[in-house]
Amino acid sequence: MELLEQASAFENRKMSHMSMSDRVKASREAKALVLKINELYKKTRDPKLMDVMKLITVKKRKIEKRLNGITKKDIM
Fold first, then answer.
1. Residue 34: CB partners within 8 Å, gap ≥ 6?
2. What is the model's pLDDT at position 67?
3. Could you give the percent of the chain with pLDDT greater than 70?
4. Residue 1: pLDDT band by 50, 70, 90 thresholds?
5. Average of pLDDT values for 3-9?
6. Who's near 56: CB < 8 A, 6+ residues apart?
7. Which parts of 1-76 are beta strand (E)?
8. Which has the closest alpha carbon to 31: 65, 69, 66, 57?
9. Among 18-22, 43-47, 49-53, 68-72, which stretch is predicted with the lowest mean pLDDT?
10. C-alpha distances in angstroms, 59 versus 5, 44, 45, 76?
11. Per-residue pLDDT at 74
12. 15-23: which pairs have CB atoms within 8 A and are 24 or more residues apart?
C-alpha cells in the first residue's frame, strides 16, 4: 500500500532544524495522511490503520506545538 509507505516515511522523517514553512508543510501533510487513512479505516476497520493514524497525530501535535510557540498559559 502506497499510503502506508507514505505514512511510514513521514513518521521516520527527522523534524529537527526545520524552518517555519517546513513545519507548516509537514503539518498539512500529516493532516492529509490522517484523513486519507481514516477513509480507508472506515471501510476496513483494520486496527493497524488506527495505530498508524495515532502515531502520525502524535508527531503532528509536536509540530504544531512548535508552530504555535508561546501560549497564554505560558505567559501567566
1. 53, 56, 57, 60
2. 86
3. 89
4. low
5. 92
6. 7, 10, 11, 30, 33, 34, 37
7. none
8. 57
9. 68-72
10. 16, 24, 22, 27
11. 57
12. 15/59, 15/62, 15/63, 20/67, 23/63, 23/66, 23/67
Do residues 60 and 34 make contact, with C-beta atoms less than 8 angstroms apart?
A: yes
Q: How far apart are CA 64 and CA 71, in angstroms?
A: 12
Tell me 70's DSSP state.
S
* Residue where the block lists cell 510557540: 69
Neighbours of 30 (CB within 10 A): 22
The three three-digit cell numbers of residue 65, written as one number: 506545538
* Grid coordinates belonging to 20: 517555519
Residues in the chain: 76
| Count of Cβ atoms closer than 10 Å to residue 26 Cβ | 20
